[in-house]
Design brief:
Layout: E1 26-30, E2 37-41, E3 54-58, E4 60-62, E5 65-71, E6 76-85, E7 89-94, E8 105-109, E9 115-123, E10 129-132, H1 136-142, E11 171-174, H2 186-194, E12 198-204, E13 227-231, H3 233-240, E14 246-248, H4 250-259, E15 270-274
Parallel strand pairs: 3-12, 3-14, 4-11
Antiparallel strand pairs: 1-2, 5-6, 5-8, 6-7, 7-10, 8-9, 9-10, 12-13, 13-15
């Protein structure tokens, strides 16, 4: 299976730069029986679900922040804070990180001239740096700096950063939003529940590698990055006892379910790292 097999033309002017109101995005359907395509809006989703179906959403919340930083040499570098590590540290990607060694200081520039200096405590995969702050308060403050790291094909800023979170986001840890769920609304979920659809959550923290391209000619040779996931007892029970279909909202929810699968359509409560590659 070659990477070229996935090529298609996407004119830049067709990439939306500002979000439509939740529920108004276009939704394409494909029926299994007749293989007929249909074109709808996301608000039409309840028409395709039935009582007894189980809808699985990914409740991960984007915690990453893009911050302006200054290295010990005085050179400025963008810093992408990825996720908290314990109470006083963040894993981060730093521009020109090769010169940022263990023990080096990195100053983050916040609003109103506020500055916080962190120390490199460790070096992780793909050149990530573990930045240690003086205390829990400073580490928490760093997470309020900067802006949400939107995908590279989005060039316009967000007026409201909550629009880049799902309405049910809860578990912080993602570098990017699980995008399929961005179109669901509270009213839509309430309507589904009133219809008898069971709505449950799982967690998969989207890693920064989601922004990186596949660089091999044959996709079978691509080394998939790992992402942390969790499937709880309540969700596993709902899936295993579903009276209807199990519907995953987006590929992140699919990866959780497939990573937790045992046999005969059943899943187990589990957590860990998944490298499942959906091709």
């Amino acid at each position: 299976m070659l990477l070229d097999d996935f090529d298609y033309d996407l004119p830049p002017h067709l990439v939306a730069q500002t979000p439509r109101p939740r529920g108004e995005a276009r939704l394409m359907t494909l029926t299994n029986e007749s293989e007929q395509f249909g074109h709808h809006s996301y608000c039409d989703l309840p028409e395709f679900l039935h009582s007894g179906d189980v809808l699985v959403v990914n409740d991960s919340r984007v915690s990453a922040r893009r911050v302006r930083g200054v290295r010990a040499s005085g050179a400025k570098s963008d810093v992408l804070l990825l996720r908290r590590e314990g109470q006083q540290a963040w894993w981060a990607l730093i521009e020109h990180a090769r010169s940022v060694r263990l023990g080096a200081g990195v100053t983050l520039l916040g609003p109103g001239g506020v500055e916080l200096t962190a120390t490199v405590l460790g070096i992780g995969p793909e050149g990530a740096r573990l930045l240690g702050f003086r205390d829990e308060m400073e580490a928490g403050a760093a997470g309020q700096f900067g802006i949400a790291p939107l995908p590279p094909y989005i060039h316009a800023g967000l007026e409201d950063e909550e629009r880049y979170q799902t309405v049910y986001s809860a578990a912080e840890g993602s570098a990017a939003a699980p995008t399929a769920g961005l179109h669901l609304t509270v009213a839509m979920l309430d309507r589904l529940r009133s219809m008898g659809v069971v709505v449950v959550s799982a967690t998969l923290h989207v890693g920064v590698d989601t922004f990186r391209p596949v660089r091999v000619a044959n996709v079978e040779n691509h080394e998939m990055h790992g992402e942390w996931f969790s499937l709880g007892e309540d969700t596993a029970e709902a899936v295993n006892s579903a009276k209807g279909r199990v519907v995953a909202v987006g590929t992140t929810a699919v990866r959780v379910l497939e990573s937790a699968a045992v046999d005969k359509g059943r899943v187990r409560a589990t957590s860990g790292e998944t490298r499942l590659f959906i091709r």
